[in-house]
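Known limitations

Structure tokens in this collection are predictions and should be treated as such. Users comparing against experimental data should check residue numbering before alignment. To illustrate the layout, the record for SRCR domain-containing protein is reproduced below. The input appears on top and the generated tokens appear beneath it.
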Amino acid sequence: MIFLLLYLHIQTIHGQNKLILSGGSNACEGRVDVYHQGKWGHVGPINWHIENSNVVCRSLNCGTALETTFGFKDDHHLTQQVWADDIKCEGTEKHLWDCPSPTWGIVKSSHLQHVYIKCSDKPEPSLVLKGRTGCAGFVRLNTTKDNHVYLCSGDWEKHQDHAEQLCKTLSCGRATQSPVSHGFKETGKIQPYTCLRNDLSLWQCVDWTSARCVTPASVTCSKHLFFRLKGNAKVNLCSGSLEVYKDTTWQTVSSKDYRNISQHWSPNDICNQVNCRDSLTEPNETSSNVYLNCSEQVSISLKDAGQQSHCYGVVYLKKTKSEEAVCVNSEMIGRLVCRELGCGDFMFTSNKGIFQPAQWTGMSCENHAESLWHCQSDNCNKKNTAIICSESIDVRLSYGLDKCSGRVEIYYKGAWKRVRANDWKRVHSDIVCSHLQCGKGYREGHDLFVDGDALDTLELSLKAQCQSDDPIHKCLEENGRSNSQDNFIKVVCQDSQMFFVEKKSSCSGMVGVEQAGKSYSLSGQPGVWNDSAAEHVCQKMQCGHMANYSTSVNHTATDWMQLDCPVSSDNCTLRRASSITTEAAEVTCTDEVTLKLTNDNKDLEKSKRRCWGEVSVCHGDACHGVCGDVWSEKHSEMLCQDLGCGRPVTNLERKSPNTLKATVSSVHCPSKVSDLSRCRFVMNATCKVSTIYVVCSGSLKSKLSDPRDKCGGKMEAFLAGSWQPVCGDINVMKTICTETGCGGVITPTAADIMTNSKAKVIKCDQAFQSLVNCTVTKEPCDKQRIPRVRCSGWSRPVVVGKSACSGGVFVKTEAPERLHAMSSTGWGDRESRALCKSLDCGDLVTNSSGPTVSFENWWNKTYNCNDGDQSIWNCEEKHLPVEKQQLNISCQEHRFINLTDLCYGEVIISGKRRERVCKTGWTEFMSRILCQHLECGNPVDTDYAASPLTESLNFNLTDQCGGEIQVLYGGELKPACLKKGNTPSLLCNQVKGCGNVNSSKKSLPRRGQRKDHLSFSCDLDKDLEYCMRLSSCEKDDLTELYCDGFKEITPPPELPINFIVGVSVGLPLLVIAIALVLWQRRHILYRLRGRRAFSQTRSTLASDNFEDIELNVKEERDIGLKSQANGQGKGLDSQASSEYDDVDEEADAGFNSADEAPPLPDRPALGGELDDGDDYTDGYDDVDQLPLEEEEDPEEPGVPPQPEEGSVPVPLDEEDYVQPDDDK
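Generated tokens:
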């Protein structure tokens, strides 16, 4: 098949026919040459007539034949091949080879006679573009005014020599590499173009027989003029100065040049070439240019969401009557648009976040195009619909000290966007700072300034391979990465400035400036240091305006800066001083900057209140809160030191609400500045963190918290506006006792386990006078005990009477330890009510004065309370009491301490409300006091759960007066042990009726440890109830005890193992055997009866002892009588086994040799031979089936006797046993 197709293809080529006129003055005049079967030849003149010539001219689109001649002509292309002769056309044929010829293709003539024709038309080539012929355009061949044809572009590019020849023929110079390939709008045929010989003209290469093509060939010659109008692309591209493309550049057309151009190009031609239709007016000529205004209105714009956007967005081409969105099919379009709109370099295309219109038009631009308007229509590729130009990109630093420091923000797609800190490098800082004309980068990080307003995040990334001198737009690229990081980059450039003053105050003194981490003195040279420079410094320091400026001598400074403000304070330049000087600039500004801590607490004295609260920065009379985003510990240290408030207390939870608006975003201090008031404050920013809150150690105050006690209780400190529990060592306790005026520490008492992890550990290097000198650490007290401290000045009110809330009032003191009677002097309802609250006894019921009593000790304080006082100690006065009458009080609550069960259970405080007692701080001493108070002995165990007391215990031994020791503990018997070294007789005496220890029976110690045992250890004179402990029993503790009353019970002997095994195995076998016997009982009985009868008979006959015979006879008689007596007439099926066993036993026991027996009947012998027909069994088939036994020794036990010869066997039926004498 392949070879067949190849053969057909070759035959098609060889079979192609082509006819030309060659050798004439043009392509429509000359000798008739024919290309046939792959060869050139000619036709002969035999019988040639005018119809043949007309067919030739018409087939070549050359009109009609004007002249036909025949003859000989020397021509090197003339071959001896004559393809046809004697051709006879009728004049209507389409091609010459359609005419009849008897010799077509086979004529061979040695003569060189040929046919020469001259047709009516004369073809001429031209280049046509937009209806105008010139040196550029589509290749057109003209014959007459109305007859022309365009050449197809098929093989045109392969024949550059044809383009060169065409440009030369048209006197247009040389062919260039810029053919016109789009915008064909002419009318006419487009014919294929194929040259079969190099000497053929363009007309001779036209293939008139093939189908037409679509794209015409085009040529641009070097003498073609490209025009453009230098208009404003944003306004009108069809109006502006005329320019011409010459020597690879665009040149403005002068009036002189235009005079030469106008000889060949009219204003309309020029407007038409630049796609602007016709000229509206005559060109406006000046000496330097020619201004041309065409009728079309064309402009280019970039839009986002239908609105004009700056150097980014969808490209729109607006004409007089329409506006179209343009697809960006190539970077050429992007470059053209960015350049035409003055938007810098083309960066990339992007569709993200840009509104997409519904209708588009495609464009395609050649390399020489200088305007999108000069491009041609094309298909639309909607993948790239918007462009980004470099001028749409900008960068700034926000929320910083000046334009050279702050958060990096990049302007992209019409909005400022934050930049993430990941992958940011120093080279990127250099690029940003260079773009802002701020030198190079100095510092970068995400925590230098506040994050500020929540702008969108830049969706571009910065290239890592950027150079520090690259423009910012060349370092940006789109990427598909998503990053959830919320840290945004901040940068400080080298040229960022911080002005400050030294010595005098926050806004007055010698001026200095810090740049890139280095401090400089500001030069005060006359003519340079002026009022504009001084005003600039005051404004930068946020100190208002300049009040005065001067110079002073500074001999120590070596590094100087010079501030040039030639016009105003807004236009100043800071630079290195040109020469070293000793004249330093000084300034006095109108305002001062102060810092303070503010709070609304009224409990502390003023000296304490000023040392904690919100940080407030005041410029003159205006105060501002400080954002906590970038506030550092260093700032807190500087502030506490400036205020004379010690050191900052860290890691404290804020207790008070915001009262100030955070308008100071960050604080930045020059290295030479030691106080915050001379630092720089960045104003007006959005904070993530609320206003900063600082607590200095100077605000610390301590107390011991217990409403009942004075100089005793849990340690608390006033931290951040509230009293909070704290913990610490003995130095902290001594410091608190001293600060509260309570003397020295007596001892820490019961400890509370802290459940509040926010409580802090305080550390004091020694016992100070106040906590101001101590440190509040970040360490929480969640794993430490907070002791209840008693100082030497401790005292507590005690009520002695009916209850803890009703009776006479005393005051108990620690040093010395005694009770002091409370005098009723000055005592009223307010004081009594405060006392009831201190005692947690509710409200007051009554108070009264007792009779005058002569107590040894009286409390020497009086009290004067206000309404609302919660503690009696807040009312204490130093006036001595004047009356010796004791105060009696009765409160609403009657408080008692009890247990939930009898002598065990949870500890509760009863009264008007029932309260459980927390284990925190509960001690064994308290348990002992409570148990004795309740008359329950001593405590056994103290735990969170119910705790049984000794009175609820009962002792027991597992046996009567002996065995393992047990205790009835909490309603349950539990094992117990007596600790080693204790006398066991205590336990025997405790158990009723058991006496002392049984010395003959050894008590046993425990082997190993048991954690679940109760143990007890007692002295000889104590009861066991006071000895119990919940603890582990050790190895040698006594766990078994035997007393005198113990009675040992002899246990039954243990069965040997062989017996147990035998019974275990034999019993199941016996059961199986009995079951088998019951199942086969009839067969077995018959056998036993037969054997018994035969055995007895033989034994009787063979024995010489007659007594034996009598025994057998009597046995049989008794059996028969017994059967008759029963009178049942039944067989032995149901009773055989049981009855005969009994009979045998009776026979063995009842008969002896003295008994007489009747004579025995003759018995037939068993085992004798029987005739086949005899039947002696009467249906006892089972007996018949018994095998015959061989004769054995008569004396051998169990062998039946042999009958005498000739005797007849006796059938084994019931009658043989019941009535043995019937044979008589």
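For this record: The mean pLDDT is 76. The first strand starts at residue 18 and ends at 23. Please report discrepancies through the issue tracker.
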